[in-house]
Write a structure and sequence with these properties.
heterodimer; A: alpha+beta; Immunoglobulin-like; Cytochrome Bc1 Complex, Chain D, domain 2; 2 domains; 5-stranded mixed sheet; 7 helices; B: Cytochrome C Oxidase, Chain A; about 0% strand
Chain lengths: ~325, ~525
Amino acid sequence: MTNTPKAEILISKGGFWFPEAISTQAHQVDQIFHFILWASIILFLILTVVVGYFLYKYKRTPENTYAKKHVTHNNVLEITWTVIPLVLVLFIFYWGYSGYLKMTIPPANASEIRVTGRKWMWQFDYPNGNKSIGELVVPVHTPIRLVMSSEDVLHSFFVPNFRVKRDLVPNRYTRIWFEAKRTGNFQIFCAEFCGDGHSDMMGVVRVVTASEYQKWLKESGAAASEGVPLDQLGEKLYTSKGCNACHSTDGSAKVGPSWKGIYGATHTLASGQTVKVDDNYIRESMVDPKAKVTAGFQPVMPPFAGLLNDREIAGLIEYIKKLK
Amino acid sequence: MSESAPVKDNYLNSPKGIWSWIYTLDHKRIGIMYLAAISVAFILGGIFALLLRLEHLNPGPLLFTAKQYNQLFTLHGAIMVFLFIVPSIPASLGNFILPMQLGAKDVAFPRLNLTSYYIYLIGAIFCIYSMIAGAADTGWTFYTPYSSTTDTSVISMTLGAFILGFSSILTGINFLVTIHKMRAPGMSWFKMPLFIWALYATAIIQVLATPVLAITLLLLVLERTMNIGIFNPALGGDPVLFEHFFWFYSHPAVYIMILPAMGVISELITAFCKRDIFGYKLVAYSSIAIAIIAFLVWGHHLFVSGQSDAANSIFSLLTFLVGIPSGIKVFNWIATMYKGTIDFKTPFLYALSFLALFCIGGFTGIMLGALSFDVFAHDTYFVVAHFHYVMMGGVVMAFLGGLHYWWPKMFGKMYSEFWGRIACALIFIGFNMVFFTQFILGSKGMPRRYFNYLDQYQPLHAFSTYGSWVLGLGLLLVLIYLIDSLVDGKPAPANPWGALTLEWQTDSPPITENFTHTPEVHHGPYAFDKVKPS
């Protein structure tokens, strides 16, 4: 297993306007957009030509000092430019509405994955009890239904390549579904403002073949970390558990303190006490982050108790030790 | 200037002294005081915008931390919406022009008018206090439960907006009564200038929608101070309820902003084409239609919030309907140019800019009204670009057009036509550089309110930032030559544009009570055919 993969580029693939369309529903979003776009361009050009002609023809000159004619109404014209746009927008409404229903109502055979949003990470729970953070692993050519909720504030799950987005609301479940057309790694954004780490609350959808998916379900979790040296396991977890959203490894302060050179240092806490950063302190800061908060930082980290096993905690500590 | 002509008494110089301004009941002076206040707000909000764009020149931190960035975009939004754009045209230009266009001496309740100005100042003080005391970082939308739990000064900012709401309501009531009761003899409803119709429609929304915002913000304050669970799920509240309440005001508020702008455009196009408006009644009725439908479309801000699919479809349908009267207005304005005598003065250039940018804002609004596309584009830069095309490309262009148009009337001085045209061109080019780029950013997936962004977006972000400098330069030019005109401008004649509405029939600047004789109205406001061709 490797680190959480980098998502495919959004900007240069998929035409001038959109990222590449990866889900089965994406093309119809692109189609309705392009229809309205071209209708708008045509109308805009017509209006520009008409206005341009009027501006040229009727500009104020010594010969044209007063309006030659005051046309104040023309029923045929006014009805035309009311009715044609009305018909057009009603058509667009129906198109957008029917497309929306297709995007929103999952097929009956969709498999379900639970999504939990919290400041500032995505957690995914699979039917067999697997968990992943920051990385959603799904099989290709399979409808996937996501049942989503938030543990703190509003978040919004957004995968541009799939053209899907839905808010995560505390105390409430929202759902979306998608079916990926090919394998690859696709960007997840949080689209609803959620605080200091909002723009770092990213993730990746890793679309794999059905057999790879089954293999991943079996091998990930605790068993997969066996045999990996502890510091390498920690390095892997740094991204796969989403630590990187708030902690840098290069010394720059993000939402939380950087891990570079932190091991063995003495930290001043918000309470004014000092504490030496050792194995016990790091462990406590993972499972109960609010217990001792370093001065200058907000007590915003979610507790990782239950999300990391003992070997993974040890791995992260070893990784932090290495970051001199 | 020759010193021979003695300066006549006008509302600016008589009575004299600072107290005569502080206690003034003259709608014109109150309008000027509003103009000064909203200009300060616009400059402040504009500086914040330039800083936000500068931060995005490159990914990663440049000037600010994430928290400071979040506070800045909140301040930019809140100041621009509550302190600038909502009061902009009605309270400054409207206050000055509305009674004069009606042929009245003042608004119906001059004391209420001054009260609403001071309420505005108190609200502004709360907002500025919030800036100093740990500025709110919620976005101007104050979405719960983030706003219920963040440790920044949400309360002073929401109280500021709450207080500003009362200023807006009082101005609305004042205008409604003035329009009903104070029209000059002979001015029937359908002989009113279209600017008045637009302000009338605006006032209806101000009076009916603003209380809902007040209630919502007060509930949020109660939740934060007394832990009464209304919106915060941790206290048993419902955050989606807040979104409904908030947009029940804030969507109609968009029309509080754009309707007066449309009114200004009707004035500019008729005056600089010297032609009667095409489809007067349709333009007037479409203002009222917009005001009514505006109350029924708030749910289109909640398409991805978890709102039911049935509600989404109804709000989508109604959203499309509100586009129709706006489209009708555009067609009518263009038809008004037909066989006119078009004078390319600065205000008319702003009207043309408005037409182009408002069309783009409208077309992208149709795109966003389509449910399936909105799911994709919601909360991306596409939406940011769309509303800036309507709010800045629409409202600010109309405001600047109106400001140039009525500047000679307000101050009795002509601005520099040469610099006016250059600034208008810079603003138009800079605006499109900033915001057209953001359509592409958004459709490529870039979410809004992001302090940091993926490296791949850098070239587009940088281009948008370069545009902000052009835009800023254009606006700075406007500020400079307008202030210069107060000192060095040529004296303005009573009617420099040859327009027919009543405000042009009195001196520039007007005398304190506007008219020496109450004018009588015999024909429509744009009846250029009744005027002898010179």
